[in-house]
Amino acid sequence: MLNDYFPVSLNVLYNNSGYPIAVVHDTGQQEPPMQSNALIIDDDLDVQLLGNMLLGQHGYAVVTASSFGELARQPELLNVELILLDIGLGEFSGLDVLDYLYDLRLNASVLLISSCSKETAAYAIEAGREKGLHMLGFLPKANLLTNLKTFLEPLKKIPKAPTREELDNAIRDKQFFLEYQPKKELPRGRIMGVEALVRWRDPERGVLYPDAFIPLAEQSDLMVPLTWLVIELALAQQAEWQAQGWRLNVAINMTAAFIKEEKMLEKFDQLTRQCGVSHSGLTLELTESVGVECLGYACHILNALQQRGCQLALDDFGTGYSSLIQLHRLPFSELKIDRSFVSRIEHDRNALAITASIIDLGRRLGLKVVAEGIETAAQLALLVETGCTLGQGYFIARPLPAPAFNAWLSQQLPAASVA
Ligand code: C2E
Ligand code: MG
Ligand code: MG
Q1: Best of 220, 229, 287, 316 to mutate for ligand 1, by most ligand atoms within 8 A of CB?
Q2: Within this chain, do residues 291 and 390 fall inside the same structural domain, yes or no?
């Protein structure tokens, strides 16, 4: 037997026609399974087969898709940490898939595999990075067998995704803090308020951002306790700012599940009373569609909050999460243009047209309109030209923990005084 003569076993891969396409050496030093999941998107079945085997050796459970259409029909295929993506996919391209990953706000790491030129690959990698996707790089298909391991190595250092139990414990232990990002009158006006954005300081993983735990919280009934903790932290901060004479409106993000929570209003009143904070210093940003079936109930609760003095904002307007029916039926006073439009207004006429239409819509409805995600002077100038009067984004300031925010705000004063 071969194994009697060699200390390694040889795995031969065959394609559909029965030809051997690769010989994979098994050194007997396989890593322990990491329970990670990977997806190979490639219309070449040989590559699927080879990738499947190589990734399997690194502890990945592998699923495959041959086309973009398959992904659209089976979105569950995308529940993975790693994606090997072919750039040429028949009538579609890897760029179409990157757009799709961005629209779905997926966090998976993406490794491009292709027989294309380095220039084409570099362009696709840049396009992915610009969207904020985690692009691992480019591996020519011919080198899949020999070089895949190099790309997988850094992934081992990425901590495993948190579990429900870990998140539950973290909420109980209050391992969360808030960062504050200013909302500013454009182009150089006052700071109208801040948005509170939650972060998890995990003792093992370090600081985790919402993308790493909000979806888990939503899927596992933990969004309500997490939101109460965020409200507690935001109200305590608001009380501190009030004490130092800063009248900053604080915006808190909340989901549909939270609005439907039993005795939500009573508990909310109790917390504001305890902290000595007035409702009128708060904006509640609805981050998610409340669902047509409970628009009536949501309307009742939101009206009650508005009567207490809270402002209500419809977040991420223009995405699948927020719709015209919500705008029509629910008592919003503020509309936030999703940053996927704002970030493209410089180079994409359609994004600019949509942004301008939202600004106009907001004006006609008598709403404040906030442009989210302003990153450049050119975007800001275009927004001002289009009539947008409020903005938020890295170009103005990144979200900052309270002490850093206080220092930043002190520097802005009195030129950009607090509202
Ligand atoms: P959001 O409410 O739309 O918040 C704005 C997000 O855009 C924040 O991401 C912020 O850091 C980011 N951002 C702001 N300016 C820029 C910019 O110029 N460029 C880019 N690329 N990004 C910018 P973050 O903090 O990661 O939060 C992501 C989302 O998580 C939030 O989107 C919100 O939907 C959700 N989230 C955050 N905190 C909470 C919370 O306490 N409760 C709930 N329910 N959701 C939260
Ligand atoms: Mg928000
Ligand atoms: Mg938003």
Answers
A1: 287
A2: yes
Per-residue pLDDT at 79:
85
C-beta of residue 365 within 8 angstroms of C-beta of residue 312: no
Q: What is the dihedral of CA 62, 67, 71, 73, to 10 degrees?
A: -120
Give 165 Cα–ligand 3 centroid separation in angstroms. 28
Strand partners, 283: 251, 311
Looking at the fold, whether 124 and 195 belong to one and the same domain comes out as no
Residues in contact with ligand 1 by the CB-under-6-Å rule are 132, 181, 197-198, 209-211, 214, 227, 230, 253-255, 285, 287, 315-316, 339, 372-375, 392-394, 399
For residues 301 and 43, what is the distance between their CA atoms, to the nearest angstrom? 50
pLDDT at 418: 53
Q: Domain range holding 348?
A: 164-412
Cα–Cα distance for residue pair 289/291, rounded to 1 Å: 5
- On whether residue 417 sits in a domain, the answer given is no
| pLDDT tens string 268-301 | 999 999 999 999 999 999 987 667 667 888 899 9
Is residue 133 domain-shared with residue 238, that is, in the same domain? no
What is the per-residue DSSP string for 140-195? EGGGHHHHHHHHHGGGGGSPPPPPHHHHHHHHHTT-EEEEEEEEEETTT--EEEEE
Q: What is the mean pLDDT of residues 160-188?
A: 94
Q: What is the pTM of this model?
A: 0.80
